[in-house]
User: Which sequence fits this backbone?
């Protein structure tokens, strides 16, 4: 909660808004018993854990920045977001319906590159988790799905030449940070293990359903992962102020449900979601709650939350062309 800047979209109201919605909708352990287990006694990441992804000079430099933040309250450490540091970097809670888990963490992490912070992100949360899963749990093959509206350039860069970690990102074409082109597919021994699918503005539920069925599923099946990790950004929602896709709470329910099933089919159900973006507190909290409903097998309440009058026609011809191009590049 100490990591906060007034009027900044990545503010400390985000996780409390989610927790309030989960409580209101009776999706917590208080109401669901052992169906929802909140892990309280987690171990913070060590410097060695962080160094599995980030460069030593950045880590030591950030420690100095934290000391300055302790004196000044807040300092900016990178301008493109802008990204700021405070004396408290992050606190995390994990809600778990074994074996699907959701890490309600902030700040987000998928823009943080190995050498530094970027775009609200200080550390590459999901990248560090992927290395930890490999090192500590022997889960060698990690499949990462990133459905944040912005390209996860930090995760992309961390594993660009790694054949054992498949990074798949759907994001709005032309959005921040301008990376994630369709021809960025990895390099060296990792060539082919990165898939970027930039969606045209206005893409929504139908587009994402086609992408899931025609791209995500066959990629995951071919890769045959030991675990699936998800950069769950909720800023592709049509009400989010930072982009112009047309996802709805219903889109996020379907994504969570389908990814859960994909993990069950391919890797014994091992799947962890990590909170990334999402800056309209109402759509963020409702969409995360819908993800929880999907995990629990509850029916979706999206019809009561989504207003179809806000939706416009999707650019499905463009989406089809992009999907066909991706299939050709990746030979499936």
Assistant:
């Amino acid at each position: 909660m100490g990591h906060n800047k007034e009027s900044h979209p990545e503010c400390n109201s985000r996780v409390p808004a989610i927790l309030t919605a989960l409580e209101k909708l009776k999706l917590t352990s208080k109401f669901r018993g052992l169906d929802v287990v909140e892990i309280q006694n987690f171990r913070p990441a060590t410097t060695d854990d962080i160094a599995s992804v980030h460069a030593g000079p950045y880590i030591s430099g950030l420690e100095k920045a934290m000391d300055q933040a302790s004196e000044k309250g807040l300092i900016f450490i990178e301008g493109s977001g802008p990204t700021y540091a405070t004396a408290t970097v992050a606190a995390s809670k994990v809600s778990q319906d074994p074996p699907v888990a959701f890490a309600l963490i902030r700040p987000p992490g998928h823009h943080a590159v190995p050498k530094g912070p970027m775009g609200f992100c200080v550390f590459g949360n999901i990248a560090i988790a992927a290395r930890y899963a490999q090192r500590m749990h022997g889960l060698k093959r990690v499949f990462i799905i990133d459905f944040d509206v912005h390209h996860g350039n930090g995760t992309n860069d961390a594993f660009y030449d790694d054949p054992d970690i498949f990074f798949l990102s759907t994001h709005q074409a032309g959005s921040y940070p301008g990376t994630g082109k369709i021809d960025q597919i990895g390099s060296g021994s990792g060539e082919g293990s990165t898939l970027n699918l930039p969606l045209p503005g206005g893409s929504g539920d139908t587009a994402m359903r086609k992408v899931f069925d025609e791209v995500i599923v066959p990629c995951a099946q071919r890769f045959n992962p030991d675990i699936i990790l998800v950069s769950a950004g909720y800023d592709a929602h049509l009400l989010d102020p930072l982009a112009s896709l047309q996802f709805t709470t219903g889109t996020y329910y379907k994504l969570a449900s389908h990814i859960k099933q994909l993990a069950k089919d391919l890797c014994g159900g091992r799947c962890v979601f990590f909170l990334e973006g999402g800056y309209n507190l109402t759509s963020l909290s409702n969409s995360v709650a819908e993800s929880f409903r999907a995990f629990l097998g509850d029916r979706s309440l999206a019809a009561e939350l989504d207003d179809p009058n806000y939706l416009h026609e999707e650019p499905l011809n463009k989406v089809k062309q992009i999907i066909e191009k991706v299939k050709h590049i990746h030979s499936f």
Notes: The first strand starts at residue 37 and ends at 39. Strands lie at 37-39, 75-78, 83-85, 91-97, 100-106, 142-146, 165-172, 194-199, 227-232, 271-275.
